[in-house]
Predict the structure.
Amino acid sequence: MSQWSQVQQLEIKFLEQVDQFYDDNFPMEIRHLLAQWIESQDWEAAANNEAMAMILLQNLIIQVDEQLDRVSQEKNLLLIHNLKRVRKLLQGKYHGNPMHIAVIISNCLREERRILAAASMPVQGPLEKSLQNSVVSERQRNVEHKVSAIKNSAQMTDQDVKYLEDLQEEFDFRYKTIQSLEQNDKNSALIKQEMLALQAMLNTLDYKRKEVLSKIGRVIHEIDMLMSNMLTEELLDWKRRQQIACIGGPLHGGLDQLQNCFTLLAESLFQVRRQLEKLDELLTRLTYDGDPIPVQRPQLLEKVNFLLYNLFRNSFVVERQPCMPTHPQRPMVLKTLIQFTVKLRLLIKLPELNYQIRVKATIDKNVSTVSNRRFVLCGTHVKAMNMDESANGSLSVEFRHLQPKEMKTSAGSKGNEGPHMVTEELHSISFETQVCLYGLTINLETSSLPVVMISNVSQLPNAWASIIWYNLSTNDPQNLSFFNNPPAATLSQLLEVLSWQFSSYVGRGLNSEQLNMLAEKLTGQQVSYNDYQLSWAKFCKEHLPGKSFTFWVWLEAILDLIKKHILPLWIDGYVMGFVSKEKERILLKDKTPGTFLLRFSESNLGGITFTWVDQLENGDVTFHSVEPYNKGRLSALPFADILRDYKVIMADNVPENPLKYLYPDIPKDKAFGKHYSCQPNEVSKPSDGGGKGYVPSVFIPVSKNLNDSTEPHSPSDLLPMSPSVYAVLREHLSPTAIETAVS
């Protein structure tokens, strides 16, 4: 079943998450129509290879053209229109930057895998539960409702101001008419009656002025209360969700809703500002003793300007945190002289601001970091915000060609810094701009979440550990001295984040049994998840007992092993992986002989082994474990083929494959058959020959059966045998004769 087919079978709450990251940058129609083709391409590799990305983009357009021909024959007008629009988008937007579409599609596929993994987990973790709190959802609805009510109130006040203006014009006309009469005419009874009517009209004007000012004051108060309470909380919640998403958590949404609220409030404040300007205009034409306008208007205008300043300052946000395109799952880790991207948005979307706001990026501006290292940003570091580059028309700017460069300092300063010291240094990317609108000038500043600067890719794992720990432990966006005294983390939250590393990076999260094993490895004992506090040193700095590496280095090596060598097996759920030797024997002891399971090595970095159960003639159960396979061996031979072809030479020199059933009772070929590089019946005949006259060969992993079953069997002897020879031998000779010849 394709990944997209699995996505379509999800519950509605997960489908809503999927809907959030498909937009005009990569429309869902294309994902649906080209599901199998899209999933069969290596978009992640193309994201780092421009030539490969260009080929994939051209092939994608060809695929769209083929779909367009098909729907044209079916006369599906709506789909024809959408496909033409998509084709124009692909050609126009990505032709000059094909790696951008590769990054987008790669990220979409990764998010789908993460959501599928989350859907398969029986229980949500504490962090994810907090992000989906019903109280938060209720507050979001309340904010949207109040913003809409405020907008309506401001518009109604507009009508009151217009009525007041009409009333004053009528008063002004009638008053000037009386003033133009001769003195004798003014003494007439009719004129005196008119003067009484004018006095009544002036009283009404005074009442309406006070009423309008009162309504304006109420609108301003409602905006002030909303900004001070619920809207601020909404923005902080979004920033927290962004932090969690950056370390592998659920995709954060809600920025478009926030933009709508910020924009409507800004429009309402500018509308109130125009109303106050209109009152000032009315004041110049008519004033009187006790006039409320000169008393109240200055205070109200000052409050409106203050609210506008605060609204604009809060609306300037980092929409996408700094990230190297070469490592999309490791944001906020930046390597010197390697380009990174970062995107900012102004949540107040006003057409008057399009291309009028120039944003400047700097690093460590006015900030004292914990080290002597200093950096500058190379590349285009000043750009204008616009509404044309974003699919949803938001007012944003994306820096795509920034590079951090380390400045030369006094001799020897680098040499005094240890490996952990470098990856625990936090730096800040800052952005500043100025908004000039309707006579207001507002200076805006914002910063990225703390980033870690590395100079060698070998520092990436520890740097990423620092990013995880920071964003797990604090919602402070700018605590650059955090690692001077890093706080402990709750074990339950840390385990949840570790599961996210697997779901986001290799497409399948960890179940409760796997997390239990990691908890025991971290603490050395069985503990309560909710109460245990784990230190930063225990996670990333102290070596595991009896080992030469830390817990995090061990776990990161396993992630790398899965990603590069056993990804399909992991996604299918056939790798138990995290299980101790003791638990392994408990699981296997009552199983059919030949039942095996796959687990990660606890003593070797990036190693995977398999253990099977056997039964001696006297009925005793014995266990056999093979020496762990590392990336070197797995680069030469796919792991699924190793499981298929693995042999043990028995005491009588007869080789047998002891692996029959994957735990608990899945026939081996049923579990791994689709991952074999070739089926046994597809092995070539001797007449097929090989390239350049050579007969093709195949490696067969073989172990010698040791008497001491506690020692791992070594797979180091990989005996070369051509597929054609092996096929002929299997057809004409018994297994005993074959292995005698091999021996």
Q: What stands out?
A: The two ends are 43 Å apart (CA to CA). The domain at 324-407+421-487 is CATH 2.60.40.630 (Immunoglobulin-like). Residues 411-418, 681-690, 707-711, 714-725 have pLDDT under 50 and may be disordered. Residues 209 and 292 are 7 Å apart (CA to CA).
